[in-house]
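Example 3.2
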Amino acid sequence: MVSLADLNNDLRLAVDTGSVALGTKETERAINGNRAKLVVITSKGKQDANDDLTHLCSVAGVKIVRFEGSSMELGTVCGKPHSINSLAVIEPGNSKILEEEY
């Protein structure tokens, strides 16, 4: 099993070296545009938004990873000074986020 620290490192690498859509609206656009390869949602985020994203991912066949933390913690992991409820990985860059099971 891959640890939470590994997820955090892979998320940061994906943000820094790949292409990532940050926020619920951008994540929805990435899913609807068939660009999202993986979606990360916070476990302590806005439940209605998470339910909508979960449904979109199930219809589009996009894998979902639950980030066990708050939206502020996800923002911090991504190197952003604000909260992020969800993100979509479009290109993983140097991370192994698409290859691991979290």
